[in-house]
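Note to self: keep these together.
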Amino acid sequence: MNGPGWDGRQAQFQESGAPNWAAPPGQHAQYQQTPPGRPGPPQPFVSNAMQPQQPQPQQRPPTGQQQQQQQQQQASRAKLSQRKSTVQNLTRKQTNSGIIVANRTLDEETEDGRIRNREASTKIRDAWIYRQIRARSDEFTQYKQGRVFIGTWNVNAKGKDEDLSSWLCADWQTHGPPDVVVAGFQEMVDLNAVNVAVENKSQQRSQFWVDRIAATLNSRQNTLGDPMRTYVQLEAKYLVGLLVVVFVKAPHRSRVKYVHSNSVGVGVMGVMGNKGGVSVRLQFYDSTLCFICTHLAAHRENVAGRNADFANVYSKTSFDIGAEAVQEVIRLGSMSQWATGASSVGVSDHDQVFWFGDLNYRVDESIPTERVLELSKRNVLDELIEHDQLNIERAQGRVFQGFDEGALTFQPTYKYQPGTDLYEERPDKKLRAPAWCDRILWMAQEPGHVAQLNYTRSEVNFSDHKPVMSTFLVTIKDVILEQREHVYREVMKLLDMYENNSLPMVSLDRINLNFGEVRYDQRVTLPIVITNTGQVVAQFRLVPKGDDTDLCKPWLAVSPTYGMLIPGERMEIELTITIDNVTANKLNTSREVLDDVLILRLENGRDYYLSVSGTYARSCFGMSVEELVLYTDPIREVPLDPIERAEKYDLNTKAAMCVPKELWRIIDAIYEHGLDERDLFSGTSGDPDEVYQIRECLDTGAAFEDFSPHCAGGALSEHGDRCAEHTDVYSQVPGGHAADPIQRLHLRHIILPRGSHSSPDEQVVAREDCKDIVQLPGFKLPEFRGGVSELVESTPRQHAATLSPLPGDELDLSRLHRLDRM
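Structure:
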């Protein structure tokens, strides 16, 4: 067979500009040099992809439907909270993956108080060794080139005996038969409730397609009767309507190992298989490959749903390949997993990843359906490509981070009339805008190791989708074991020279870290420099205190948590304090203090105790409404200590303000300067520095500077969100005074509808986003239907009188009356 690739008879790569797989006798192979480095892994729970869809504008329901509306709003908030929790859990899991995993029962304490854990010591030592060997991998690795074919097709639950060669074998005359063939299918069965729940037809249909592919690849026309040109099935994995199957050329089968598969359902209830992914990973010679076939959320407007499905499949796809296989993965270029005690690998732990399927991304809705149809039929693609949702989302970094895709040079692959080459325009069918739903992307640790030879579609027409295929020229590693062992012996000789001397010794430039005054939503980092002052290798790690399982308190982060230093080597350990909303609430309620002790253990040496402290600059953010209305002084002046606070203030709730002064100050400022601003509550909070200064003014009582109304609106939204997280709208403040919530709905209602540039979307935000934060005493929310003047008149005068301004800020309640007459 002519062309670059594998010669089936000799099972050797025929390279362009590179030596043969086996060097001639008496000669050393010449290796292609590839600079080390790898791209960072893609954010499982961007927070943008996890956000639910924005509610569509709707008219205010009649009084009789009020209760139903509130139930829907509560369900929406619960769903949003669940998605946020999922993102936080995934983030926490990724953060903790850097902690060394060692059995603490194996700790050994000597008579002089030194503690050693041999398991931890061995893992840290091996991690250092593999890091040195990987840095010299070009000395024992030769790189060869092969071809990988990827095909994807949504068959719409159809297919009988149609010829598949125009899809699977279309470019064999140009590029030659590929070395690896991967085919992915979507909707191989109808995605009805029975099939999703039982999968009673999936196995039968998956075997049908596997047999069809094998028959096509190994047809007499393709093999010419030569067994060295045949293909062998490695693995097939299905999930309801999804299927991925991998074939390899027969001569390569002996060099394929550690083949594993997985499936992830993200459909109904987030777990069912009507949407999701199936995947296969393997080691091909000494490179690791991963193939993922997915079917993501449908509907043109559901971009966030597709982004969320990708993040879920990416984060949940893992392969438990065992400790032996993971150690080999490490020796071939990855060390993080085994060093931390795991026996599985994820998507990013592979040299090359190929992601394909019906990703369901459409042409943006800004182009009408009729216009998309017209351009698609005329094959005028530039405008459609510019508005392709996947291109837009990737450019914004919201999905498929680190992946590449070839140029779209073919017409949209969906939606066709089955059995024809015509887009679906029949009067009795729903008119859909054509789209490139079917896509193929890839990611490589070494970007130069994957080159796309073609990216096109087939014209097989029995489905409403066209098949898509791509052939890649991939660079594969083949390790020369003798030379790797030579490098290993040299590294071990260097290590042994230091290990055979005496006990380790290190010095720390400080053990007491005082972060000073730390503010809300602020990250402060201080370093500790650790230096190996001894004559031998020093291994260190942070360990939990006593029976704790965490290294430190949640508001503190440490990186790295372990390491190894040769004599004279030094390293920085960074400690970072972050005051988020949860921590701020605990600090405000005296359930937490910025004080912690960390234990840094020197293996086969002593423990070092690191003291961390700081002072929290109290903020109204992270406080409940019930507490905020009790204080007339700036919140920064209110002591954190509950005893001092009780001595300084009369906490009688009868004297409480009906509105937190901080909330009123922002409303007053927006009224005065921001009524004519466009998109005041569009979701963007403005300049972070100005928002920070606004928070400082609220906390210290200082007069507002000339701040942007958008920043004030952002501070208002943030203040309301933070108060809502710590406010029980049905609770009562001690003393019997009911702390009825002031609806932020009404506070925004004061401003938004009165602005000359307010939009329907802003009014939706006012109605839907501002819920259950505060409610003025004296009226019940379900009965309130009047204007702002009625709201003020229904407020008891003694409570309105408590809205006393801070020095320098005049709060005029009469503005509410004037607003109502505008």
